[in-house]
Fold this protein.
Amino acid sequence: MKIGFIGLGIMGAPMAANLGKAGFEVRGYDLRPEGRTVASVAEAVTGADVVITMLPDSPQVEEVLPEIVEYGGDNLLYIDMSTINPETSVGIAQRLPRALDAPVSGGERGAIEGSLSIMVGGAEADFHAALPVLRAVGRTIVHVGPPGAGQTVKAANQLVVGGTYALVAEAIMLMEASGVDPGKGLDVLAGGLAGSRVLELKRHSMVARDFTPGFRIDLHHKDMGIATAAARQAGLSLPMTALVTQLIAAARAQGHGSLDHSALLKVIERINAA
């Protein structure tokens, strides 16, 4: 099976590598020359059985879509694994007969390990056709509904992740201010009901104030915009989502957009600065 992979960033590059290790013929394209194996979107798409995009936002996906439509074969299976607006995914499905929105969760480590969680929207038959490809990059793979449903579930994922980071940041501040070792404290929390994937992966780096990006504040800011827009469209009031959105916006306004989203701790520190 030939796969055209467009978007070789922090997430896309290891995902494409895992597809190659699984035996697929992968033609990778990115705007940056590092790592790409073809020189254009058209070259990545032409003759491909499957095309995957892993891009920052809706505009970038919409920018490459015309070439995917033009150069893709009649039976092309298109899998957009970016995190974009649900309505954009619905519009894509109207232009391509076999299109799935399949955003992922798990961060850079999940991409490297091939252990991503993948939430898939689209036709059930196309989901089953895509499973061999998705299993090369993910571990938890669920068909959650029609076109756009995957992006809605991803929006829910991002609001939970953002809220968890904010609360872990506050827990660290509380323990430090009270003279308690936050590292030992978080070790206990991670083994109890408060345990989470965030605590498992990020508690040590947060205590050490190591905010090397696995998933940048800038991207989480974009994702919270998607979540709040989805809530507005559904006619819902989500007050905790609104608060987390403001904290992430504050991190970005304070110049932390290029840091890992665990850098919400820096915002909580600033709020409490003497």
The two ends are 60 Å apart (CA to CA). Strands lie at 2-6, 25-29, 50-53, 77-80, 99-101, 104-105, 116-121, 138-145.
